[in-house]
């Protein structure tokens, strides 16, 4: 007569075989680490097909850490150890090195097993290959950044647009106020641009704006400068850290650059080539000053340049700055 204990044992072993078969047939890779020895007591055979390392080569947590991308290692190991010591289940994404030196994105899902006295007994978990998911996430991020870039770019000239300028002006104004540094603006307005369009057509007008925008962008050599299309035939240069002398030099370079382009104008009552009028100003922001008032004051200098004959530079003098900020535009 069969022994009932033998039947129970066989049933238990059969169940264990079923569980092992189920675990080892999934794409997720099961594993278990003994906390006291920090050694793997089990890792699924799928690890070899995924990473190329033999199943038997996963002996200790040092093997796991050593096969992680150097840029991820300190962050991930530190996080997992801290969470495990606190008895908190957790997840970690990292790049695991394959046997042939490539990298695969892995997500480790970790469960902390505790003994009756609350001490950590072991860690069990699953490794998942999330490389395709990461590719999708990176593509979405790239598309988001591209969309953000396009939203800050003028569609015609390819330089920064008004939105980008407004964003940077606010940021740089605050930085200048806090750092006690100068901030300069140069506003460039193409002279008699309506007559240019009337004489040459809007396609030529677009080409004129594109050429001038490109030239102004090339003039800007400092990494922090912003060259933007301000609207219509106006361009604006934001020059963080530039004092009065530097701003005037940039404005003069803009005038020379436009002249070198020698874009034919020849409209009624206008000179032979395209020129521009410029307003220039430098601020050292103090409490109570606003970027909007400063921008308006420089814009009034541009208006003065156009009213006084065009193709000239008008500078916001520091000695008259307070009055200029309050003065209404004519």
From TrEMBL:
* GO terms under cellular component: plasma membrane
Superkingdom assignment: Bacteria
Write down the EC number.
2.7.7.65
Pfam families of this UniProt entry?
GGDEF, PAS_3
Q: Where is the PAC domain?
A: 90-142
- Give the matching InterPro entries: Diguanylate_Cyclase, GGDEF_dom, Nucleotide_cyclase, PAC, PAS, PAS-assoc_C, PAS-like_dom_sf, PAS_fold_3
* Record-given protein name: diguanylate cyclase
The protein's matches in Gene3D superfamilies, at most eight in alphabetical order, are given as:
3.30.70.270, PAS domain (3.30.450.20)
Q: Which species?
A: Marilutibacter aestuarii
How would you classify this enzyme at the top EC level?
Answer: transferase
User: Catalysed reaction(s)?
Assistant: 2 GTP = 3',3'-c-di-GMP + 2 diphosphate
Question: Can you provide one Gene Ontology molecular function annotated for this UniProt record?
Answer: diguanylate cyclase activity
Q: Name one GO biological process term.
A: negative regulation of bacterial-type flagellum-dependent cell motility
Which intervals hold domain GGDEF? 181-318
């Amino acid at each position: 007569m069969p022994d009932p204990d033998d039947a129970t044992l066989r049933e238990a072993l059969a169940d264990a075989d079923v569980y092992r078969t189920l675990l080892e047939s999934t794409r997720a890779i099961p594993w278990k680490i003994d906390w006291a020895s920090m050694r793997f007591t089990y890792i699924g055979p799928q690890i070899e097909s995924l990473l190329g390392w033999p199943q038997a080569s996963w002996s200790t947590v040092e093997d796991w850490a050593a096969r992680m991308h150097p840029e991820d290692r300190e962050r991930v190991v530190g996080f997992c150890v801290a969470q495990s010591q606190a008895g908190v289940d957790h997840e970690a994404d990292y790049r695991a090195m394959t046997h042939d030196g490539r990298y695969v994105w892995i997500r480790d899902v970790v469960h902390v097993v505790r003994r009756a006295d609350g001490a950590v007994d072991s860690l069990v978990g699953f490794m998942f290959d999330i490389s395709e998911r990461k590719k999708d996430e990176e593509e979405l991020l790239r598309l988001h950044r591209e969309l953000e870039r396009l939203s800050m770019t003028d569609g015609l000239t390819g330089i920064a647009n008004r939105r980008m300028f407004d964003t940077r002006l606010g940021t740089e104004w605050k930085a200048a106020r806090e750092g006690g540094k100068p901030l300069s603006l140069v506003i460039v307005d193409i002279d008699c641009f309506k007559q240019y369009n009337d004489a040459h057509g809007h396609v030529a007008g677009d080409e004129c704006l594109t050429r001038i925008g490109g030239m102004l962008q090339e003039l800007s050599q400092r990494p922090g400068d912003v060259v933007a299309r301000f609207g219509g035939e106006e361009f604006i240069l934001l020059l963080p850290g530039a004092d009065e002398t530097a701003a005037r030099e940039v404005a003069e370079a803009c005038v020379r650059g436009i002249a070198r382009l020698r874009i034919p104008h020849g409209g009624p009552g206008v000179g032979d080539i395209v020129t521009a009028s410029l307003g220039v100003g430098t601020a050292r922001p103090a409490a109570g000053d606003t970027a909007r008032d400063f921008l308006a004051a420089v814009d009034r200098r541009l208006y003065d340049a156009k009213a006084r004959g065009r193709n000239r530079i008008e500078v916001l003098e520091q000695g008259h700055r307070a009055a200029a900020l309050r003065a209404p535009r004519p």
